[in-house]
User: What shape does this take?
Amino acid sequence: MLRFEDVSFKYKSDKFDMVKSLSFDVAEGEFISVIGASGCGKSTVFRLINGLEKPDTGKITMSGKDIGSIKNYSSYMPQKDLLYPWRTIEKNICLPMEIQKKGREEMKRRSAEMLKEVGLWDYRDKYPRDLSGGMRQRASFARTLLAGSDLLLLDEPFSALDSLTRMGLQEWLLAEWQKHKKTILFVTHDVEEAVFLSEKVLVITDRPITHFEQYRVPLAYPRARADLKRQEILNLKEELIGKLRQEAEQ
Ligand SMILES: Nc1ncnc2c1ncn2[C@@H]1O[C@H](COP(=O)(O)OP(=O)(O)OP(=O)(O)O)[C@@H](O)[C@H]1O
Ligand SMILES: [Mg+2]
Assistant: This one.
């Protein structure tokens, strides 16, 4: 579905490449986590996928088409929820549909469905400041889904939350993913979160980024927290933590 072919990228103000000859593929419907030290370029890779930055060389395609020639193929949910404080929750989540110039009726109908689904129907007329952190993340996710793209780029969406809320949202996200059959790329600093959620974990171990080290998580869906205690999962977590340590020491 998504393909990087020999992609290199450097920020104008930098001397060195951030990404160099990077090639990788994401298949439709996959849930992939990306981990790596702070500043290694995870968000930069998302910005490239989303077209906010352009590769200097190489090609990024979605289902064979250059991303420069297509629209609305991905939606980006940044770490900090970007809900507009002056818009109600309902108006916030309608924003992508407004941009796409959808009709009033359709917006009403789809936002109502989504508000119920994420458990925010009773809060539709409230403002972001009236909601808890976890509720704002759900609103932000609802908006990301309503953008209608098949590829969701979630950049540390739960990092600012307490661990109980976070666990609840992880389980909720898995259920949403299975229901909507989207493709998800998920950046996190939390190895356990990566292992619990995804089918594959990509580890960034070099600078510039020339490749990802890939690990498959040997668990089927639906998953339970107790699965994390299995020996092969404990081993995988250890190995991933070791990789991150090694990278941090370089
Ligand atoms: N717009 C920009 N212009 C120039 N340099 C940038 C820009 N955005 C990011 N960088 C630099 O690129 C590097 C990678 O940044 P990036 O945000 O991709 O890292 P990250 O892996 O997402 O980090 P974190 O885990 O802290 O979010 C950093 O050194 C950062 O300073
Ligand atoms: Mg980042």
